[in-house]
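User: For my dataset I need records formatted as: sequence, then structure tokens, nothing else. Please produce one.
Assistant:
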Amino acid sequence: MNFSSPDSRSGSAVYADYNATSPLRPQARDAMLDALEHVGNASSIHSFGRAARQRLEAARADCLSALGMPDHRLAFMSGATEALSTCLRPGVQNLSAKSSVSRLVIGPTEHVAALDGHGFAADVVHRLSVDAQGRVDPAEVATLLTTEEDAGQTLVCVQGANNESGVLQPVAELATLCRERGALMVCDLVQWAGRLPMPDVLPDIAIVSSHKLGGPSGIGALIFDPMRVHIAHPLLRGGGQERGVRGGTENLLGAIGFAAALREATTDLPAEAERLRALQDSFEAQLKADIGDVVIFGEDVERVPNTSSFAIPGKEAALVLMQLDLAGVAISSGSACSSGKVTESQVLQAMGVEPERTRCALRVSFGFGSTDADVGRILSALKTLKKPV
């Protein structure tokens, strides 16, 4: 799928930065346009409010059904950052252990919203290690959950699919371990949802974001097992909306668009995952053939089927991105981007990647509109980088 780019000198642009944000799916746009014809606050008791409440609850049920999590509770949030900040706090209640969490175990390759956005004091946070492919070791988690009391007061936070490398963590194994030991597990499934079926064993708390899968920005979801988790101290108070988990007038329009996008993203998901995997495989095979010394991060382990993180030695990411942008190709740096600034990737640092390679890290991420032609355009633009810059 090509898009008009005001900065492109070559007409239509190729967009391959779906991990940053996805284009809006037509189904989400249509659903929101229809919703704009209606008025009503879902907290009002008159007929307009009751109709709005019905639309909100239908969107909530649709999201849970599409994710295969009908027995969980879903609270709409402004996005994944707010959802992570809401649940990564002391005082979240572990109902199975009849205790509140007071210790955090977290992976070093988590999104910055988890690493910097949690509310735990430094002396009660244990940062896990990862191997050279970016995977945590469940055995290390097990050693930290040695006693029933420690486990019941521990919150384990491990991202399902890394936003930079695409590397998948053993979510089902970790969720099983936490459940057996009595700990709670939080899993950022932002890059997983809509690209892969949900894990066979679900985490106690899951995070999903609308704009990563073709819905509107400004809305996401905090999803949790109400038999095991209670959010005792919501981040946003006032009004009691979202069953007390998040105060404030609900984003009804966003919820409707989110639900429509998620329904579409999960329709025939295995076939779409296979299509994305074919694009990923084709891109990486041709990339290695065209540029012999390219490094692909995480290529030896299972990854989400749309993401290729790589480095071309000697080609710094910032310069490459500018050249590709001028050629009408939009990809991303492998490093974390914040407010338009490119910084060295803490993900690749945790994986033990040398600094000279982290500075060259790039990321191509495909999505529902990506085609074989996009792969060709990206590769053609990258091949020109073999010339002096």
